C-alpha cells in the first residue's frame, strides 16, 4: 500500500500543490491575525475541481506552512501570527533583538520540520489500527466515543468550561437544522426548501473564522500603522546540522508531546507548545538562558506545535472526530472530496490516504527550501495594512461560501455565521467547540437514537458493551483529572496571592 | 428590587447579553419545536425527530442562564463603542444589499462594492486603494473563479 501510494505521488500536480500550499501557508501564517483555519477555509473553493490527492496536499501544505509562518511574526515582531507561536516569541524575539533573527527563524524552521516528520510517522503507524478498531463499533460505542470527545473539548479546551459547553451545544443545535438523520423530518427549516440541506459546514466555518475576523477588525479599527512596527534586521547566519543534533532530545520530547496532545480533541497547539517549552527549560543545564534567546526555547515549541498537525489528524481521519478547529476544516475538505473521514476511510480510500500521508512527509523538503527563501519576503508581508488585506478576505469569503453549492443561501448563512462569530469572539466565547459540536452533533444524534431504538429505549445497551463502558470510564477519569487540575490551580493561585 | 436591577444592568455587558440572547432563542426554539418538527408517527417511540433537539435546547437554556448568572457577579466585557458597532452594522448592511442585488448585478460588481466600502470604513482614504484595488481584486477573483475553477458565479 505504501509503495502504491508513493507511486500515486509521482505527479507534477501533487508537487505543485504542495509548494503552492506551503508558500501560501507561510505567507498567510506570517500575517498576524490570519491563521491556518481561515487560510484553509478560504482556499477550499480552489480545490473543488482538483483530484483528492493534490487537493488535500495543498490544504495540508497550507496548514504546515501557516504554523511555521506564525513563528516569523512571533520572532521578528513579538506578535505571534498564530496563538501556538506565542511560546516561540519568548526566546525567538529575544534572539532577533540581538541581531540573530535569521538564526532564530532557521532553528524554528528545522524544528518545525522535525516535529512534522515525527508526527506524520506516528500518524501512519496509528491511524489505520485505530480505524480498524473503530470498525467494530456499533451505535452505542460511537455515541459514547463522540460524547467523550465533546466532553474532553469542554474540559481541556482552555477557557471557561461553562462557555465551552454552551458553544458545543450551540454547534450541535446548528447541526440540527435541516433533515433529521434517521427519519428525514425537516427541523427548524421554517418551511424553506433551501434550508433542508441544513447549515453547511464550509459556509459556517468561513463565516466563523474569516468573516468574523473582518468584523472584529472593523470594530477595533486602529489608527496606528502596522507597517511602522520596528522589524529587526535579518543578518546572514547559519544553523548547522550539529546544532540541531545537539537538541535531539528536546526535539524528540517536544514532538512526542505535540503528537499525543494533538490526538486529544479540542486542545489545539498552544498548550503543547508551552508544555514543551517548560519541559525544555526544566531539562536544560542552563535554564537561565531561557527567555534570553536560547536555541532550545525556540526549537521546543516549534517542534511541538508542528507535531500537533499529524497528531490531530489521527482521530480526525480514523474516527471522524476532529482534534481542533483546523482539522475540523480539513475534515470538511475531505468530505467535499468524497473521502468521508471515519473507520471506513482506510478500507475504501487507503491509497489516497497513504499518498496524502507520504505527501505530508515529503513536503518537508519544499518547506525547508521555501521557508528559507521566504524569510525576507515575509518581512514585507507583515507590513501589509489590514485595510488592504481585509477587503480581499471579504471577497474570498463571499466566493468560498457561494462555491460550495453554487447557492446564495450559503452566502447568507456565511454572513450570519460571521456576525454570530464576531459577537461570540467579542464576548470571549471560544469558537472551536462550536465548530466541533456542529461536526459531531449529527453523528452523535444518529448514534444515540439508533442505539436507543434498537434497545427499545433501554439504556442497558450502553452498559452491556465493554467498549462503551471503557469509554465511559475514560470520560469519568477525564472529569476527575479536570477537577484535580482545577483544585490544584486554585490552591496555587491562593498561595501566590497570600504570599 | 429596582435598585438591584439597575445595579445588575450597570454591571451587565456583552457576555451577559449574549447569554441572555442564547437563553431566549433556545427558549423560543423549545416553544416552536412542535410546529417546526412535525412528527407523523403512531406514538410508539419517544425517540423521534424532536427527542434530541429538545435535550439540546433545554441544556442551552440552563447553561446560558448559569453562565449569565456567573457573569452577573463579575465585571463583564463592555458592550463597546457605538462607532465600532455602527461600522460593523454598516458593512453587514452593505453585504446584505449586495447579496440581495447579486443575482441581477452580478458577483463582480457586488463584491467590488462590498470590498470598496470595507476598505473605506477600515480607514483607506486613497481613492486608488479603496476603489482601484478592490476592483482589481474583485475582477481577478471573479474571472479566476469563473474560468479557472468553473464556478458559475451570478
Set down the secondary structure blueprint.
The complex is a heterodimer of chains A (499) and B (154).
Chain A (H helix, E strand, L loop, with lengths): L1 H7 L3 H19 L5 H8 L8 H26 L8 H12 L3 H34 L4 H18 L4 H16 L1 E2 L6 E2 L13 H19 L21 H5 L2 H16 L6 H14 L11 H25 L5 H12 L7 H19 L1 H19 L3 H20 L2 H19 L5 H23 L5 H4 L2 H33 L1
Antiparallel strand pairs in A: 1-2
Helix pairs in contact in A: 1-15, 2-4, 2-16, 3-4, 3-9, 3-14, 4-5, 4-6, 4-13, 4-14, 4-15, 4-16, 5-6, 5-13, 6-11, 6-13, 6-15, 6-16, 7-8, 7-19, 7-21, 8-19, 9-17, 9-18, 11-12, 11-13, 12-13, 17-18
Chain B lengths: L1 H10 L2 H23 L14 H22 L9 H24 L1 H15 L5 H22 L6
Helix pairs in contact in B: 2-3, 4-5, 5-6
Concise account of the structure shown:
Chain A is mainly alpha-helical.
Largest sheet properties of chain B = none
Helix share bin of chain A:
over 70%
The structure class of chain A reads: mainly alpha
Percent strand of chain B: under 5%
The overall pLDDT average of chain B reads 86
The total beta strand count of chain A reads: 2
Shape of chain A: globular
Q: What level of helicity do the residues of chain B show?
A: over 70%
**Beta fraction of chain A:** under 5%
Helix-strand pattern of chain A:
HHHHHHHHEEHHHHHHHHHHHHH
Q: List how many beta strands of chain B DSSP finds.
A: 0
Oligomer: heterodimer
Low-confidence stretches of chain A: none
Give the N-to-C terminal Cα separation of chain A. 61 Å
Biggest pleated-sheet summary of chain A:
2 strands, antiparallel
Amino acid at each position: 500500500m505504501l509503495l502504491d501510494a508513493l507511486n500515486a505521488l509521482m505527479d507534477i500536480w501533487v508537487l505543485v500543490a504542495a509548494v503552492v500550499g506551503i508558500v501560501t501557508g507561510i505567507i498567510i501564517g506570517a500575517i498576524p491575525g490570519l491563521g491556518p483555519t481561515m487560510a484553509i477555509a478560504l482556499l477550499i473553493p480552489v480545490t473543488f475541481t482538483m483530484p483528492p490527492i493534490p487537493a488535500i496536499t495543498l490544504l495540508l501544505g497550507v496548514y504546515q506552512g501557516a504554523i511555521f509562518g506564525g513563528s516569523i511574526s512571533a520572532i521578528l515582531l513579538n506578535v505571534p501570527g498564530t496563538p501556538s507561536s506565542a511560546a516561540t516569541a519568548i526566546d525567538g524575539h529575544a534572539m532577533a533583538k540581538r541581531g540573530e533573527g535569521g538564526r532564530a527563524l532557521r532553528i524554528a524552521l528545522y524544528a518545525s520540520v522535525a516535529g512534522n516528520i515525527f508526527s506524520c510517522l506516528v500518524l501512519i503507524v496509528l491511524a489505520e489500527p485505530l480505524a480498524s478498531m473503530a470498525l467494530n463499533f456499533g451505535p452505542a460505542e460511537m455515541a459514547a466515543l463522540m460524547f467523550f470527545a465533546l466532553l474532553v473539548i469542554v474540559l481541556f479546551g482552555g477557557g471557561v468550561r461553562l462557555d465551552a459547553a454552551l458553544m458545543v451545544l450551540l454547534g450541535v443545535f446548528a447541526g440540527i437544522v435541516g433533515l433529521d438523520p434517521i427519519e428525514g423530518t425537516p427541523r427548524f427549516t421554517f418551511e424553506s426548501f433551501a434550508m433542508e440541506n441544513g447549515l453547511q459546514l464550509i459556509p459556517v466555518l468561513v463565516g466563523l473564522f474569516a468573516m468574523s475576523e473582518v468584523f472584529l477588525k472593523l470594530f477595533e479599527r486602529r489608527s496606528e500603522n502596522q507597517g511602522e512596527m520596528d522589524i529587526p534586521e535579518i543578518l546572514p547566519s547559519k544553523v548547522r546540522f550539529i546544532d540541531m543534533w545537539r537538541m535531539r532530545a528536546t526535539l524528540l520530547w517536544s514532538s512526542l508531546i505535540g503528537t499525543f496532545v494533538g490526538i486529544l480533541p479540542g486542545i489545539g497547539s498552544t498548550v503543547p507548545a508551552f508544555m514543551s517549552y517548560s519541559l525544555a527549560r526544566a531539562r536544560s543545564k542552563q535554564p537561565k538562558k531561557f527567555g534570553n534567546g536560547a536555541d532550545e526555547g525556540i526549537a521546543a515549541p516549534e517542534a511541538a506545535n508542528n507535531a500537533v498537525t499529524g497528531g490531530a489528524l489521527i482521530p480526525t481521519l480514523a474516527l471522524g472526530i476532529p482534534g481542533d478547529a483546523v482539522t475540523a476544516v480539513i475534515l470538511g475538505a475531505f468530505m467535499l472530496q468524497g473521502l468521508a473521514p471515519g473507520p471506513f476511510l482506510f478500507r475504501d480510500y487507503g491509497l489516497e490516504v497513504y499518498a496524502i500521508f507520504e505527501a505530508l512527509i515529503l513536503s518537508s523538503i519544499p518547506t525547508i527550501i521555501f521557508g528559507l527563501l521566504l524569510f525576507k519576503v515575509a518581512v514585507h508581508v507583515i507590513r501589509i495594512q489590514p485595510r488592504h488585506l481585509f477587503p480581499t478576505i471579504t471577497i474570498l469569503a463571499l466566493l468560498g461560501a457561494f462555491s460550495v453549492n453554487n447557492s446564495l443561501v450559503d452566502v447568507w448563512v456565511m454572513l450570519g455565521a460571521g456576525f454570530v462569530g464576531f459577537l461570540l469572539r467579542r464576548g470571549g466565547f471560544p469558537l472551536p467547540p462550536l465548530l466541533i459540536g456542529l461536526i459531531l452533533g449529527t453523528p452523535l444524534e444518529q448514534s444515540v437514537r439508533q442505539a436507543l431504538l434498537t434497545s427499545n429505549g433501554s439504556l442497558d445497551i450502553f452498559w452491556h458493551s465493554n467498549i462503551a463502558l471503557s469509554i465511559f470510564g475514560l470520560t469519568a477519569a477525564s472529569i476527575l483529572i479536570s477537577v484535580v487540575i482545577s483544585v490544584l490551580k486554585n490552591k496555587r493561585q491562593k498561595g501566590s496571592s497570600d504570599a | 428590587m429596582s435598585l438591584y436591577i439597575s445595579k445588575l444592568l450597570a454591571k451587565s455587558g456583552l457576555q451577559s447579553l449574549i447569554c441572555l440572547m442564547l437563553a431566549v432563542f433556545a427558549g423560543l426554539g423549545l416553544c416552536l419545536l412542535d410546529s417546526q418538527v412535525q412528527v407523523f408517527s403512531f406514538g410508539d417511540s419517544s425517540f423521534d425527530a424532536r427527542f434530541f433537539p429538545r435535550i439540546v435546547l433545554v441544556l442551552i437554556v440552563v447553561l446560558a442562564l448559569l453562565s449569565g448568572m456567573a457573569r452577573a457577579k463579575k465585571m463583564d466585557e463592555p458592550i463597546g463603542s457605538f462607532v465600532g458597532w455602527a461600522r460593523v452594522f454598516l458593512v453587514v448592511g452593505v453585504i446584505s444589499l449586495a447579496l440581495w442585488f447579486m443575482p441581477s448585478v452580478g458577483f463582480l460588481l457586488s463584491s467590488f462594492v462590498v470590498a470598496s466600502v470595507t476598505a473605506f470604513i477600515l480607514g483607506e482614504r486613497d481613492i486608488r486603494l479603496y476603489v482601484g484595488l478592490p476592483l482589481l481584486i474583485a475582477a481577478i477573483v471573479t474571472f479566476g473563479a469563473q474560468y479557472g475553477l468553473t464556478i458559475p458565479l451570478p
